[in-house]
Design a protein that fits this description.
The chain has about 475 residues and is α/β, with parallel strands linked by helices. It is built from eleven helices and 13 strands. The longest helix is centred in the last third of the chain and has 38 residues.
Length: about 475
């Protein structure tokens, strides 16, 4: 009879440079998890142990949930490694890196059609969440100063937006003590309307939020209509309410693919815009950008001057330290690709997204949520005759490695169950075909499984009647 115990010698093993990593004693011991070990291990052993554990993560290429870039060119990777040790906040030590950030800010301000007479300014951030909070803080402060100048109360600020916004907006309202006026969605309308905005704004509204490419459905709010409303309100009631555009997803798409759409600084009330460089800016996480139309839109009181890093340095951020490498990677993409390069890449992404959307719709099993596809995102729901949910389908696709999120829309459309697929730069037509094939196979498998279950239940019912 074989013993279940394996005796491992407790004698110290003599390991040399030629000892295979997987043959070392560290592979016969539990990897440290909750306490720092008393002694370390060779670098190759630590690397191999962690690398093998990370195999349990999903494959980034098959991750249809994330908007975040998962591939960059080798030259960009090299620049990232060259600058990975530079803390961006050390402007005095790394002055050229700070100049590169300024160049990117200028490029984005012009991409977003900043008026020639304006002195636009901005900053790099960890991502759009930080950019949103910084932008809204500036609008809160400007509103407060305006109310103080008019000797009016400033203790009840509010912010108005649709429920299609990212969670960063609701975080801002909670963290910075601003009343949140969140306009619910509807079952057949998944964006905010100008009429909905008009019902909620008042003299205490510090800002109206508008989204260019929602996370939930990939649609865009009617930003020009909202702007026209606010211009009229300013002329008739004297409330000068700014718009902050959350262009995290769409800010690097619309200017290249649909430049005729007016959503940016061409509109009078659009005063600030955030965009995620690590989404369709095609940079690894995490880098975002906050751009103000004019320097007067950012109160000077919010800019801190610090001198303990060497020189006198202005700072406007929630997070003091951040890496320089993604900022430099963003600059690399802008000069490497140019407008034509971005247009070419984004056009292919959009074509592939539309191709997938049409195949899913033509299958007769899905209904498109975002029928007018402006962004490389496909959001669908199952037809009503399906015997299972998108949550079942999402789980089934996981068995093939696909990460396709399923969720419900915000109130009052939370009875709508959606499955969303984000098409990224390294997701070609063959990958689209494979995804579609696996979706159909998963659908058929679930449909058959449900039918078999019903058949078994019916047989059990008949057997019960017989006895």
């Amino acid at each position: 009879m074989l013993s279940n115990k394996i005796n491992i010698s407790k004698k110290t093993r003599v390991e040399t440079e030629t000892t295979p990593t997987c043959g070392s004693r560290y592979f016969a011991e539990t990897i440290p998890k909750y306490e720092i070990p008393d002694e370390g291990m060779p670098p190759r052993a630590a690397y191999q142990l962690i690398r093998e554990e990370l195999n349990l993560d999903g494959n980034p290429t098959l991750n249809m949930a994330s908007f975040v870039t998962t591939w960059m060119e080798p030259e960009a990777n090299q620049l990232i490694m060259d600058s990975i040790g530079k803390n961006f906040v050390d402007n005095d030590e790394y002055p050229q890196t700070e100049k590169i950030q300024t160049r990117v800010v200028n490029m984005l301000a012009r991409l977003f059609n900043s008026p020639e007479k304006s002195e636009s300014l901005g900053t790099a951030t960890i991502g759009s969440s930080e950019a949103i909070m910084l932008g809204l803080l500036a609008h809160k402060w400007s509103w407060k100063k305006h109310r103080q100048a008019e000797d009016k109360p400033y203790d009840r600020p509010n912010i108005v937006m649709g429920a299609d916004v990212h969670t960063a907006w609701t975080k801002f309202a909670l963290y910075f003590d601003v009343e949140l006026k969140l306009i619910p969605l509807e079952k057949d309308r998944h964006i905010v309307t100008a009429e909905g905005i008009e019902r909620e704004i008042d003299e205490n509204t510090i800002c109206v939020g508008a989204v260019l490419g929602t996370t939930f459905t990939g649609q865009m709010d009617p930003i020009k209509e909202i702007n026209d409303l606010l211009v009229n309100i300013k002329e008739t009631k004297g409330w000068d309410i700014p718009i902050h555009v959350d262009a995290a997803s769409g800010g690097f798409i619309t200017p290249f693919l649909n430049p005729e759409i007016e959503w940016d600084f061409r509109l009078e009330q659009v005063k600030s815009i955030n965009v995620s460089g690590h989404k369709y800016g095609l940079v690894y996480p995490g880098v975002g950008w906050l751009i103000f139309c004019d320097k007067n839109d950012l109160p000077e009181e919010l800019i801190f001057e610090v001198n303990y890093l060497g020189g006198l340095m202005p700072n406007y951020s929630l997070n003091f330290s951040k890496g320089s490498n993604t900022i430099i990677a963003q600059y690399y993409n802008l000069i490497r690709l140019g407008k034509k390069g971005y247009q070419d890449i984004l056009q292919i992404l959009l074509v592939n997204a539309i191709y997938l959307a049409h195949k899913l719709e033509n299958s007769g099993r899905f209904e498109l949520i975002n029928k007018n596809i402006l962004f490389p995102l496909v959001a669908v729901k199952l037809k009503e005759d399906a015997n299972f949910t998108v949550f079942h389908l999402s789980e089934k696709l996981r068995q093939k490695g696909w990460i396709v999120p399923a969720y419900t829309l915000p109130a009052n459309a939370d009875d709508v169950e959606v499955m969303r697929m984000v098409i990224k730069e390294n997701f070609g037509r063959d990958m689209v075909e494979m995804l579609y094939t696996d979706i159909m196979k998963a659908y058929d498998s679930l449909d058959q499984t449900t039918f078999v279950k019903e058949e078994i239940d019916e047989k059990r019912k008949n057997l019960t009647l017989l006895y």
